[in-house]
Specification:
By secondary structure, the protein is α/β, with parallel strands linked by helices. It has one domain: Carbon-nitrogen hydrolase (Nitrilase/N-carbamoyl-D-aminoacid amidohydrolase, 4-Layer Sandwich), CATH 3.60.110. It contains seven helices and 14 strands. A hairpin with a 2-residue loop joins β3 and β4. The relative contact order is 0.15.
Length: 266
């Protein structure tokens, strides 16, 4: 199947403008034959903590119903980073909507980036559960931005939930662009799985994002990639056969030594 990743800039606090852009990129992906499109972190509000605090809404309102309408109208599955207000808490979340417009999965970012000037911990509550979902014979594992620095997340998803396609919605900043590319490739290679990354471009509240959205296959080969500074749509075929092929040639999962590592996913 073909999966697309949208690399976009967002308008801070302007839900209508951001939804319009999501609709446009989704239509382009559908025309290109994609069955699923990924959008970046906080695609509904933009990535600035004061704006998110002001604009986050419960999922019965705001972006999610709009995304459901886009997905159903185009018969296209969508995964997007979105704000989520639940009671007194706000979460940095992803929503997974199928081609019928139904919410079939959600994920709340488990690792919050606390360094200045961002300080996600001042805005968000952290999630406490890893999540994965079947999709067209594959199994997708969701993750958001800073999660990429924690290989335990991806190993746990690969071993305990049999994930073979990792999805990352991100607003990764420019100073660490090389970390971004290297870590994404490492997660693909060590888990013999696809990694599909949708990252932001543009600047929000003084933070400039590094783009470089990409699709990496289970061999660690980048099969589609975007620039560092332009809005783009990248897409590629994702194949169960490619996953089986690399895993049959190097049986790293069967040859693990969890008795030495101190945990199943170590």
């Amino acid at each position: 199947m073909k999966i697309a990743a949208a690399q976009i800039a967002c308008s801070l606090g302007d839900l209508d403008a951001n939804i319009h852009k999501i609709r446009d990129f989704s239509a382009r992906a559908k025309e290109g034959g994609a069955e699923l499109i990924i959008f970046p972190e906080m695609a509904d509000t933009g990535y600035a903590m004061p704006v998110i605090q002001a604009c986050a809404r419960p999922w019965s309102e705001g972006a999610v119903p709009e995304l459901q309408g886009i997905a159903k109208g185009l018969s296209l599955a969508i995964i997007s980073g979105v704000s989520e207000r639940a009671g007194a808490s706000i979460y940095n979340s992803q929503v997974f909507i199928d081609a019928d417009g139904k919410v079939v999965g959600t994920y709340r970012k488990t690792h919050l980036f606390t360094a200045a000037p961002i300080g996600e911990d001042k805005c968000f509550a952290s999630g406490n559960q890893l999540t994965s979902f079947p999709f067209g014979g594959l199994r997708l594992g969701l993750s958001i931005c800073y999660d990429l620095r924690f290989p335990e997340v991806y190993r746990t998803l690969a071993i305990e939930e049999e994930v073979n396609v990792f999805i990352l919605s991100s607003a990764w900043p420019f100073p660490r662009v090389e970390h971004f590319r290297i870590l994404a490739a490492a997660r693909a290679i060590e888990n013999q799985s696809y990694v599909i990354v949708s990252n932001r471009v543009g600047t929000d509240d003084g933070v400039t994002f590094c783009g470089s959205s990409l699709i990496i296959d289970p061999y660690g080969v980048t099969v589609a990639s975007a620039s560092t500074d332009r809005e783009e749509l990248v897409q590629a075929e994702v194949s169960e056969e490619a996953i089986r092929s690399v895993r049959s040639k190097m049986a790293v999962f069967a040859q693990r030594r969890p008795d030495l590592y101190g945990g199943r996913a170590s």
